[in-house]
Specification:
302 residues; alpha/beta; 18-stranded parallel β-sheet; three-stranded mixed β-sheet; 6 helices; 24 strands; 20% helix
Length: 302
Amino acid sequence: MTLRNVLVFAAAAAGSSFAQADIALIKDWNLIVLGHWSNSSQDVEGNAFCGGNLSGGSPTIGVRLNAAQWAGREVLAVAGNTTVSNINLQAGNFVRGGSLVGNVNHNGGGSTLVDGSLGARAAAYAASLTTFSASLASLTANSAVQTPLGQPGPVRYNAAPGQDGLAVFSVHANDVFNNNLIQQIELNTNGASEIVINVAGSAVNFAFGNMVGEWTGAFARANVLWNFFEATSIALDRNFNGAILAPLAHLSNTTAIDGSVFVASFDQRGEVHVPFYGGNVPAPASLTLLGIAALGGARRRR
């Protein structure tokens, strides 16, 4: 069963099209932080939504966005209060729901706007991403992971996609991250068009090994979705590739993340890079999506 079919089936079972709206969120944003976001003067190459407070030094947002294409659209939205030294906004508008302490440098020609609906959007986004993560976790794995046992070695993700091109892995964080035997992390896509990796475990500590080979290419960064469906804490001390979906987790990083990020809260000490998530899943089209689409505001148009 393709990821598209899984989403459609889940939506039908729930009597709505929530799944299509969920996938729209992760295609529309480079970063969603459902709660509080601390940024230690780090870049976000795409757009960012924060459902809580934003604090920190001088973050730079929208580094890789075309200012002309994003004119008049929100590139940074913060539902709570913003307390920074400077925000360097390279494209589009800054939209805030709370107070602002600090300067906003509109290097892309945009404006600072106030929108009282951001809190409601944050709640809708949290419900949507949590539901989506749970639905992905129910997928049956069709691909295998080889982990080192007894002596140091690599972790190998060997995709075995179905005719639809979807490869699904099911792993535990203790085996593929919290494991001091890991020397490197390898990926064999084997023709997969999209990859979902469901990761069990409440605590994730990526401090061993490095992603190499196909992990570092454009495909993995845009078309691999890491679903940390149980995690409440994720610490990344190595360069990470692929999109991160962890709606219950506090994320901290000290190195770059090459892919989009969707988490409960974020202590950002490394950059968040594009690409946007580009998995082969449907975009919302049904009229039943108008409610959440209205909450979406000025979204990224593909």
